[in-house]
Specification:
Helix content is about 25%, strand content about 40%. The protein has about 200 residues and is of the alpha+beta class. The chain is globular and about 55 Å long.
Length: about 200
Amino acid sequence: MPDMKRRVAHKLRIGDILAGKPIIDNDRFSFLELGDKNIVRVNVIANIVERYDSEGEKKFSSLTLDDASGQVRIKAFGDDIEKMKNIIEGNTIRIIGILRYYNNEVYILPEIIKQVDPRYLLVRKLETEKNKPKEINKEEIVALKDKILEMIKSAEEEQGIDVDKIIMELKSRPDLINQEIQKFLEEGIIYEPRPGRLRYLG
């Protein structure tokens, strides 16, 4: 679908995906209902625990992901298998993809697969924690904004910086960092050349 890439890729743990309710419309998967969200695209960080490649005429590969909250599969067909090239069991990856549902199984069609540092698993766990403290010092927010912008500016020679790297290096709550990044995006101070990657616009 042409509008699919404009949909938000929700940062979730696998357990969240498994807890969702697949909504079927006219025998076709429409979206995953999770709380008050209707989810079509996801952004997941997990370990590869199994890889399968078909040897037959029809090209097919699958990766089984595990992030300690559950397991889900990535399935690729035809030319999309190229996106899984060089990905092996034991790798930690970030996958951005579209949810699909077939034969009582929710799985992910890959758009972007990138190998990442295993420490990002902890980052994602912190990002998705349900109970977050509400009180925050205003001076801390200002200092945090300055640090985020400084990191994005200083990464220009490397063609930008990943959101997860900012979260790992700054000793602050991931939800606050994401909140300030979103404000910078809305104000047009920074932009995303691709999902999860930030560059300075000034």
